[in-house]
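Supplementary Methods. Inverse-folding protocol.

Structures were first reduced to a discrete structure-token string of length 138. This string, shown here, constituted the complete conditioning input.
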């Protein structure tokens, strides 16, 4: 058993995010593990750029209201305790609603063949961010 040395909080790079975003790395697995997990904090209206993950991504909402957008224009609203799975290679974005902070735990896997685990694309426009919202009906 091993306690993982905690890294300091880091500001997320503007090349991948719009607005004020910070993260704490929970785990960046070392071989043979490919596990990745970050606690990510978004200021109101802050969001990722469009991106996809080679092996998919899971988002667990901790606090606030999360918005998760897909290329077909759908903007899902997710609340604390909800978990959203994004399939491999699906382009999406996620961030905070305009009126409150949001925290989520982002979970994904690294690749074992050297290909990038995340493919980043262009920023999400205000029109895309402000698209009609839908909630998950259980």
């Amino acid at each position: 058993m091993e306690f993982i040395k905690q890294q300091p909080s880091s500001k997320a790079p503007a090349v991948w995010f719009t607005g004020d975003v910070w993260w704490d790395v929970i785990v960046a697995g070392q071989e043979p593990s490919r596990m990745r997990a970050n606690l990510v904090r978004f200021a109101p209206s802050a969001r990722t750029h469009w991106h996809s993950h080679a092996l998919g991504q899971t988002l667990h909402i901790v606090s606030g209201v999360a918005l998760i957008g897909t290329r077909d224009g759908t903007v899902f609203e997710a609340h604390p305790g909800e978990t959203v799975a994004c399939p491999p290679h699906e382009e999406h974005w996620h961030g905070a609603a305009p009126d409150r902070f949001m925290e989520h735990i982002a979970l994904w896997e690294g690749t074992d063949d050297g290909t990038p685990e995340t493919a980043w694309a262009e920023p999400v426009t205000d029109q895309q961010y402000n698209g009609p919202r839908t909630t998950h009906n259980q």
